[in-house]
Each structure stands twice: as structure tokens, then as C-alpha cells.
Design a protein that fits this description.
Outer membrane efflux proteins (OEP); 4 strands
């Protein structure tokens, strides 16, 4: 009797061990969606430090490792991947225990208690399809991660290019201020000897004061740009933005149609919508499977005591424990509920198709606008670089020579210098706008162009 009473804890331990083995087997079936960016195995624990003189690529690498929004999106994707094994696994088995308050007397002895084990098994194909649906959701989550990463890199590049333009504006403004201050000294000397008019002296002083104010305003703009970069890199100890002396200008080697085709094929946002569309289609099929029953298999053992004779001695052959194998299935009787689930899945499928079409239309619209900005900036860079700046410099030198020779008024010299300054700054502005538009195209394409 005592031996039989300790059998059921062993059965429980055996069932628990089998369940752990099943869980490990299902975890091994985890499917990792293909990745466009290779995240290292130690991504969540690795640290990446900036070099002494970082370039734009170094800042982008630091953003990959340190930006909290990217890390949040990464963890969301990994959680979705782990959910694949959960979706494909069987429901937990059930253990039932029963104790007979009044023993049932049988020919082989009194039945005292029983222990049973049952396992629900969904209809064939349900678990596999659930896993495929979750794999599609994980793929969509990864595309959202790519979109987040591209968006943060784009934001970093905009800050970087704005900082470059700011430094160029500071340098050009300071250069022109120095030049104007030198001319001011010349005008003051001429005014002292009566060879220069008072209006020229006042005009020079006004221009100097204006340029000094512009220079201070430009310097103050450094702080919000540095704060933006610190937030993107999650590095509050960053002291400055390391910038190049000039930006390269290389027009795209691909045509408009090639860029549009590439973006529409590779855009992570569209790829995510396509994954969700497949998930919606599979969800319709999964909802239809609810019309089919699920199975349940069970095993039960009834613990029976020894039957005693008049003398109190166990009867030979008594005390045998019967084993009961059982099976059951659910009856999907409420067809209205099943039909509602199918219709709901179909509505979500139509929604996902509409979202995909809307995403394509929005992307085409944005591509047209970006291509216009890219071409406009490219033309302006060529215009200022090849024509306007050389001619304005030539005009400035001619005006300087004429002024020194007394053939032209000083106000003409100020206007010529201001025009050359404006053209030089416009060149840098157009160059920065070109790189920003290109960066946006690369963010949409998910790759460098």
C-alpha cells in the first residue's frame, strides 16, 4: 500500500520532465527572420566608443549601439521572435487528482484515489499556422526596427550637415567681418584727412555691427545642435561635433527610375506592411480552422487497495490498479462565433491591403518630392560653384580696384562684398540640402546610394 501511495509523485516528476523536454524542442525550432543589418550577438551588452576624431560613419556606428529608441525596437523584435516557439507549442498538459471519500468496493479491492494526465492537441495544421503567423509578425517587427534605425540615422545626418553649414557660415562671416573691419580702418583714416565722406564711415560701422551680431547668433546655434547629437548618441559627455573642412559633391550615378524601383522594393516600411498583409491572409485561414475540433488524449490510473478475506489476509490477485486511456474532442457548435471570427479576419486582411496600397502611394509621393529637392540642390550647387561665385569674386576685385583708384563709391564695394558673401553661403546651403535629400533617399531605400 505504501509503495503505491508514493507512485504518483514520480509520475508528476516524469510529466514535468517531459514538458521541459518538449519546451526545449520547440525552442530549437525558433526561426530568425532575415536581417538587412547584422546586429552582433553581444549587441545588448557591447559598448562602442567614438575615436578621437570621429567621422560621420563613426557617429552612425555609435548611434547603433547607444540610441535608446533603436535598442527598444531591437528588444521588441527579439521578443516577437521568442514568441514564435510559444505559438507553435502545445497547450500545457493537465494533471488531475481524485480521492474517493467513500471507497468503491470492487472484486479486486477498494478504489481509494486516482491520478490522470491529459493533453489537448489542436487540429492538424493549427499550431504550424500559428507559428507562421507569429513569424510574419516578427518579420514585420524587424522591418520596424530597420525603419527606426534608418530614421535615427537620417536625423543624425541632418544634425551633422546642419552643424557643418553652421561652421562654414561662422568661418565665412568671420572672414568677411575681418575684411570689413580692415576697410573700416582705411575709411576712418581717410575721413580723418577729409578724403572720405561721413556716410561711408557710418555705413561701414553699421555693417560691422550687423556682422558681429550675425556671428554671435551663429555661435549660439552650436548648443542646440550639440544637444541633439548628444540625445541621439545617448552621450551627455560629448563636447563638440567633429566636422570636415568640406563636403564631397558627387551626383547620383543611378537614374530616377532605378532609384524609385529600388526604394519600392527595399523600403523597410513597405516590407513591414507586406509582412503584415501575409499575416492577415494567414489569419483568415487560421480562423477557418476553428470550425474543426481539437483533440484531447488522457491516461488515468486508479489506485486500488488490497481486498482482505475474513482472516484479514489479502486475497490473491487483489489490489490491481486499473489504467484508463481516454480521448475526447471539442464540438465547435457555435457557428455564429466562428463565422464572426472569420469575417473579422477578412476585414483585417482588407485593411492590411489598403494600408499597403496607401504606403506605396505615400512613398511614391515622397520620392517625387525628394527627387525634385535633390535635382534643385544639384543645379544650385553647379550654378554657384561654376558661375555665380567666380563672377562675384571677379566683380568684387574689380570694384576694390576701382575704389582704390577713386573711380567708385565705397557703398558699391560694400554691396559687392555682401553679394559675394551671400553667394558663398548659398553654395554651402545648397550643398547641405543636396546631402540631406540624398540622406532621406538612402533612409527610404535602407542602403547607401
Amino acid at each position: 500500500m505504501s509503495t503505491k501511495r508514493i507512485v504518483w509523485p514520480g509520475i508528476i516528476l516524469l510529466i514535468y520532465s517531459c514538458g521541459m523536454g518538449l519546451e526545449g524542442m520547440l525552442a530549437a525550432q525558433e526561426i530568425l527572420p532575415p536581417k538587412a543589418v547584422e546586429f552582433p550577438a553581444d549587441y545588448t551588452t557591447a559598448d562602442w566608443n567614438l575615436p578621437a576624431s570621429p567621422a560621420l560613419a563613426d557617429y552612425e556606428e555609435a548611434l547603433l549601439y547607444h540610441n535608446p529608441e533603436v535598442r527598444s525596437a531591437y528588444e521588441t523584435w527579439r521578443a516577437q521572435v521568442r514568441q514564435i516557439a510559444v505559438s507553435r507549442s502545445l497547450p500545457d498538459p493537465k494533471i488531475s487528482l481524485g480521492y474517493f471519500i467513500r471507497n468503491v468496493e470492487t472484486a479486486v479491492g477498494p478504489q481509494q484515489y486516482k491520478i490522470g494526465l491529459s493533453q489537448m492537441i489542436p487540429w492538424f495544421g493549427k499550431l504550424s499556422l500559428q507559428g507562421d503567423i507569429q513569424a510574419g509578425r516578427a518579420q514585420a517587427s524587424y522591418e520596424q526596427l530597420q525603419t527606426m534605425l534608418n530614421s535615427r540615422i537620417l536625423e543624425l545626418r541632418r544634425v551633422y550637415y546642419d552643424a557643418y553649414y553652421l561652421e562654414r557660415a561662422v568661418a565665412i562671416t568671420r572672414q568677411n567681418l575681418d575684411l570689413l573691419q580692415n576697410w573700416g580702418k582705411v575709411i576712418l583714416a581717410k575721413y580723418s584727412t577729409g578724403t572720405a565722406r561721413h556716410a561711408n564711415l557710418v555705413k561701414t560701422q553699421i555693417e560691422v555691427i550687423k556682422l558681429e551680431d550675425d556671428l554671435e547668433t551663429l555661435k549660439e546655434t552650436r548648443r542646440p545642435l550639440l544637444a541633439s547629437l548628444r540625445a541621439l548618441l545617448n552621450r551627455n559627455d560629448l563636447e563638440k561635433i567633429n566636422l570636415p573642412d568640406s563636403l564631397d559633391f558627387r551626383p547620383l550615378a543611378v537614374t530616377k527610375d532605378e532609384v524609385f524601383r529600388l526604394v519600392l522594393d527595399a523600403n523597410p516600411g513597405l516590407a513591414g506592411l507586406r509582412s503584415l498583409n501575409r499575416v492577415a491572409e494567414q489569419s483568415v485561414t487560421r480562423a477557418k480552422l476553428n470550425y474543426l475540433p481539437d483533440f484531447s488524449l488522457g491516461l488515468e490510473r486508479v489506485f486500488t487497495g488490497d481486498k482482505l478475506n475474513v482472516a484479514g489476509v489479502p486475497v490473491p490477485g487483489s489490489g490491481k490498479d486499473p489504467l484508463v486511456v481516454s480521448g475526447s474532442l471539442t464540438i465547435p457548435l457555435w457557428f455564429g462565433r466562428q463565422s464572426a471570427e472569420v469575417n473579422r479576419a477578412r476585414h483585417l486582411e482588407q485593411k492590411s491591403q489598403a494600408d499597403l496600397e496607401s504606403g506605396k502611394n505615400g512613398l511614391r509621393r515622397e520620392l517625387e518630392s525628394l527627387w525634385f529637392e535633390l535635382e534643385k540642390s544639384r543645379r544650385r550647387v553647379s550654378l554657384y560653384q561654376d558661375q555665380l561665385i567666380p563672377r562675384s569674386l571677379e566683380s568684387l576685385r574689380a570694384v576694390e580696384k576701382s575704389y582704390i583708384g577713386g573711380e567708385m563709391d565705397f557703398l558699391n564695394l560694400i554691396d559687392a562684398q555682401r553679394r559675394h558673401l551671400e553667394f558663398t553661403l548659398s553654395l554651402e546651403k545648397s550643398l547641405v540640402e543636396y546631402h540631406k535629400a540624398k540622406a532621406r533617399l538612402e533612409a527610404l531605400a535602407g542602403r547607401n546610394l
